[in-house]
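FAQ: What does the model actually see?

It sees only this:
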Amino acid sequence: MILTDVLGSDVADSGGGRLGEVSDVRFALDSAPTQLLSQARLVGIVVSPRTASSFLGFERQGLTQPWPVAQLLRWWHRGSFLVLWEDIGMMGPQKVTLRPGYVAYDAGLQR
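And it is asked to produce this:
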């Protein structure tokens, strides 16, 4: 599956209740970069209850400028959360279903 197939997909809990849309994904680099690229592993998806648009990097701790843009994006993405790969029950191009008992983590990146 291609990443752009997942972005914007509806996200539902195990009972079929709508939680939002996939607005972003999180990757981890497990090793030092090789000559061309690092090995990346999908950690999870970011679910936004209102929009599939990007955070534009403003989910990072401490990014506050330009102030109007930062405030608007934080307001627009309020309630967004990160779901780890282990908590995804099914992922398709139109819908992502989470497993029962999934954990919703803060979508902000930690330093």
